[in-house]
Amino acid sequence: MLHTISGSYKELARLVPGLEGRSPSVRNKSKLREIAERGDPRPSQKTKIGRSLSDYTSPANRSYDPLFHRDMKKIRPEWFMSQTQVASGKKKELLKMARRGDPRPSYDKTKIGQALSNYTRKKSPAYDPVFDKQIRKLRPDWFLK
How many CB atoms neighbour CB 49 within 10 A? Predict the structure, then answer.
């Protein structure tokens, strides 16, 4: 007698040739690997495949797969960076640009320009007074009106 969904799938896989190893989790993991290897952005949590990625890579989830998680981190480490790590990288990039003498990045046209605005605008939740002081010291011309 079939009591669970996974049990029923396993039973069906034994009876129907070609279904073995093609469970939904295997298909999802395969699709996620394809997305990662193509270089596509991380799937949104609003999609089924995005939620699957979160399920398979979150240790708190019962669907957690440590081998899959390790493989995905090797292929696309940026998918697993914390917000602090992302911000740190953007701040380093902005400081490099300032030291090289590059023009101020455009707020309207670039993500790095939006990050500059967020980190230097006092009313922004991402405001960083230490970074603000550093960048203004290096490139006061970026902040002239």
Answer: 14
